[in-house]
Amino acid sequence: MERFIERDRAGAVSDEGRTLLFDHGRRTERATLLLHGLSASPKQLLAVATALHERGHNVFVPRLPRHGHRNRLSEALATMNAAQLQACASDSLALTRGLGERVAVAGFSLGGLLAAYLGQFEDVDRVVALSPFLGIAMVPNVFQLRIARYVLSRPNRFLWWDPVLRERQLPEHGYPRFATHAVGHGITLAHEVMNAARETPPRAKDLVLIVNTRDSTVNKRAIGKLARYWSARKPGAVRIIRLTDLPPFLHDVIEPKRYPEVSKRVTPLMVECIDR
Q1: H-run or E-run covering 1
Q2: Considering only CA atoms, which of 112, 117, 73 is closest in space to residue 217?
Q3: In this structure, which long-range contacts are made by residues 153-156, counting pairs with CB atoms below 8 Å and at least 24 apart in sequence?
């Protein structure tokens, strides 16, 4: 834990953006690692973490690399890459193993991709990936890696999540912009996960993929393909849950400060999938 505390002591990191730990003062039967999305912070998953803690879990929610800075218009994401994400996910899992006998890993969007990455390559009891970022919506899977390589070969740019609200977009603990290179590195990591899943079974015992069928950001066909790869290599271990009745075009269905009514519906489902 000291390593994560030291990382968060950097002057640029805000109190709102720091790593979170909810523990019972002892090693419990169940421990959960929660991984937030791109440009967000651990507070994105605060409601999930609190609910799991109340159910007896020790819960660790790390700040992902280059996230959580006090300056919401920080350009720190420009230097985030796939290797940093992999290292953070692995270090976080090692810490979470010390918190409980059985370990679950769950995440949203970029965090969902990291949860899938750990589920593919690490021995964990359960993975729950909500809207995992395995590619860009509307872009055929065959072109995803080419696009990532092209983006990474071009100058890095920052784009607004909401071009109308811009810096006024909530929540305050997240960035209102994202870096194009960060997306490129995410796609590169997703390609690695998909290639491995096609050839070898996932090491996680139980895997759950939650898909918002009206999501306009992540590639839903890629999520379905990952589910098929995992099911073929590990029959009976994979569930895919499709959310069909959420408002159209929404991606961030877990952040209560953006869409509170949607979050109230999705948070209990995520908690139940982790805890069941």
Answers
A1: none
A2: 112
A3: 154/180, 156/78, 156/180, 156/181
* Sequence-distant (≥ 6) Cβ neighbours of residue 57 within 8 angstroms: 22, 28, 30, 31, 32, 100, 104, 274, 275
Q: Is 102 helix (H, G, I), strand (E, B) or coil?
A: strand
pLDDT tens digits, residue range 186-240? 999 999 999 999 999 999 999 999 999 999 999 999 999 999 999 999 999 999 9
170: which 2 tokens? 């909530």
**Domains, the chain, with CATH or none:** 2-275 (3.40.50.1820)
Contact 1, 23 (CB under 8 A): no
CA-CA distances (angstroms) from residue 18 to 15, 65, 151, 264? Answer: 6, 11, 29, 23
Within 10 Å of residue 244's Cβ, how many Cβ atoms? 8
pLDDT in tens, 8-34: 887 799 999 999 999 999 999 999 999
Please check whether residue 153 is in contact with residue 181, taking contact to mean a CB–CB distance below 8 angstroms: no
The pTM for the full model equals 0.96
